[in-house]
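Ticket #4471: structure output looks truncated?

Reporter: J.K.
Steps to reproduce: submitted the chain below (140 residues) through the standard prediction queue, then opened the result file.
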Amino acid sequence: MGGSQTTFIMIKPDGVQRGLVDEIIGRFEGIGLRMLGRRDLTPPLELAETHYAVHKERPFYPDLIEFITSGPVVAMAWNGEDAIASSRKLIGATNWEDADPGTIRADFARSIDQNIIHGSDGEETAAFELGLWFPGGLGD
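Returned output as attached by the reporter:
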């Protein structure tokens, strides 16, 4: 299928505030992915706006930017076999009510607006997001 890939995953402010970081990291490790990089930060406005620029014309954009800059996030790079697809499956549907049981969002999210986690949806998106959140590279 996809072979070895690296994807971008971000635990959003609600996940950090609720103390879910270790649980979520454990779930990614549990599906055989390896963390290549991690940054804990409160995203500056410019970073948040660039990350979510694709949604700029949508009515929820201002609330999304306010939320994602409201507190610390954990930005991570994960690598492994089919990392993008397997991460998306682990994360679950954007709307927590539609997420499969056992996914991160089904287990922890309680709002479509504050849904615990973000994951890249394809190789191009992953490359863009990894470059944005890890501008100095991942090292290894």
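Triage note (M.O.): checked the attachment and the full token line is present. The mean pLDDT is 95.
Status: closed, working as intended.
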